[in-house]
Design a protein that fits this description.
mainly alpha; homotetramer; 211 residues; DNA-binding; elongated
Chain lengths: 211, 211, 211, 211
DNA sequence: CATGAATGAGGATTCATTCAT
DNA sequence: GATGAATGAATCCTCATTCAT
């Protein structure tokens, strides 16, 4: 895309020590918000720096004060999106309960985040990096970190021996992620959909469930 | 700059119904093939007409002899991709067998098509139109026609009363479609994955399963 | 515009001796008609060979059988348009009558031709070549031939000595040509407008008029 | 490829009202000037953005910083041209004098503006929008505003009852505008031509004329 | 912090034209 | 006579980016 200048712009938000002037923080946050919205609707290539600048109410050149490039801006948005889902799921998970209950809460958190009409989540849900460019690798890294959460949750599940836990995880996440393709507000709530989906996978593997 | 001129001259236009444009049978087919490959890798906005023309070995303007616009070209590729999957699933489905067996074969056909490393299928798998533009509507139409196949298959299933068949269909298709995000050749075959996934749902829902 | 290949394609209509096959003549005539219409509406540069071909119902390449280039096609249309007006004015003029009556009839013929909603005339009326390219010179030649008709008509007019007959001619033609810019069907007829305009120039130069 | 960069920096945007962009006062003005010249010679469709950019000494893309589109650029030039003529005529008109004298001065102003070899005026003189596109409507609006000036001037004229003042106006403006088609520098001055033309109408219509 | 002005490459598309069939 | 297929240049315009201010 350009000649490989990635990784310099250390996330400005980590500058917690120094110059935290509100105006600056707000502008950057605003830019991220707008970028999340537009990227999630139009995709990366379909979104122009001008689109974003126009919506923020600033000149395109101004974006370059905060982000070294369009790619960097996108990665920042993606990171934030992944973080939000991680937080939602982590929070839902830490509380006590049976492994199945915790998984159900995690699934609920995951789906609620995905469907929250929050642009960050929508972005993460709709853009699945599969390419082999440097760009894609940056995104995959983020996403992989997240999906590990479910590895642990499913590891705790009481399942018949020789159950393919990996396939269970991937299938369930696939089903959950797929919901964004058909979900329409007004019908069943995200939480109820998530619970039903988990239940589809539950009974057969755990003969004691429902008794 | 281009080697030779015109070789074959079978009216390319009469080919829109079928799905066999292997290689150099004609220019239009070649263009579709190349477009499928590049679109599926780089997405719609990320692919330029120049990219495609370069790979076909013609001038960008030549593409416009066969396709009115980039959008039309994309839709043609998408349609062909959907048709291929429809064929695969229909074929797997028409044969006799119990409803669950037929669904299993359909799922296998679906997943095999998706993972065939056939660019048309990859394209359909990776691009889920969700927008509200005319463009998206053209694609959704195609896809919807396809998903109806599964409505029928699932309608035939012997299920406990009050089972949410719609949610079952959506969840299962979500899980199947999600496989493209993690499938790596060399592990379990698409057919075995599909069968395992269907079995997860079956054991859970079908009182006779496992007997 | 291109590297000076003008003058080869001798007007096919002058081929009155040889191959007058109707189909050919009709196609050529049809092409001229359509070209006249479109050129007169959209101008030379604003009209494409494809526009014309589409309307004729033939492929762009077919036009090149009859006309060596777009420029040649345009010149052919322009020539025909000038000829039509020449004919109209000549016919109106040859009949007997006083010089003023003949001028009035000529003006009427001129204006009627201009407003006839005949595309050839409209073209001539709306495109006034003023440039210095070879192209423009070809057109000017045609037009000049025509305007000479009025030189003679005005030479015959009984006018006070030292009247600037050239200015009279140019002013009157300017006024007549200007009518196309404001004429709307349904109001005064072209003939009545032409008569009124001539009358505006008549009385003052010829003190005996109206008496 | 371009000599130097930016020289002056007077906000070009605030200049839309006035009409004095002589040469290099600012880039926007320069662009208008060049566009006026080329548009007036080659017409709208016959002029490319590249033509203009090349002459200004900038990249085509730079034009888009100042003008949203080719059409907008053209309209801006056209507006400026109309404004210049309006100013010329208004100035010639406001001074006292008999109605005929004022009309004569207005005609002189009009013709002088038209023939000033000023590209803006030439453009207005040579391009008469007659179509029904939005584009044409934008231009007609401008031009109509101008021609209303003459409605008032002619309304003040002492004329025989039942004189068709509208036809008089249209005929006179047609004659004046037609002058650009035959005027050649070196002969009679624009002012003298204008006076003679008005006199033609006056002697004919004004009982007191010549006295 | 932010911008005004610019760039050069590249975007999709249309152009007039050619030529073998 | 007519066309299907192609071309290469040109069309308008948008792109991400830069940089002095």
């Amino acid at each position: 895309m350009n000649e490989g200048k990635i990784g310099v712009q250390v996330s400005a938000r980590n500058n917690t020590g120094g110059n935290r002037n509100k105006g600056q923080e707000n502008r950057r946050g605003e830019m991220l918000d707008v970028a999340a919205r537009i990227f999630s609707h139009q995709g990366y290539a379909g979104t122009s720096i001008r689109d974003i600048a126009r919506e923020v109410g600033v000149q395109p050149s101004s974006l370059y004060y905060f982000f070294k490039s369009k790619e960097d801006l996108f990665v920042a948005v993606y990171e934030k999106g992944v973080n939000e889902i991680v937080n939602a799921v982590t929070k839902a998970t830490t509380k006590a309960g049976t492994p199945w209950a915790r998984l159900e809460r995690a699934a609920t958190g995951h789906l609620e985040a995905l469907l929250a009409r929050d642009d960050y989540n929508t972005l993460v849900a709709s853009i699945v990096p599969r390419g082999s460019t440097d760009f894609d690798r940056r995104l995959v890294q983020n996403r992989d970190d997240y999906e590990k959460l479910f590895v642990d949750l499913i590891a705790d599940l009481p399942l018949p021996p020789r159950t393919d836990r990996r396939l269970l995880r991937l299938t369930m996440l696939g089903a959950l992620n797929g919901v964004v393709n058909w979900y329409r507000p007004g019908g069943a709530s995200p939480a109820s959909i998530a619970r039903k989906i988990v239940k589809m996978f539950r009974l057969q593997l755990d003969p004691d469930a429902g008794s």
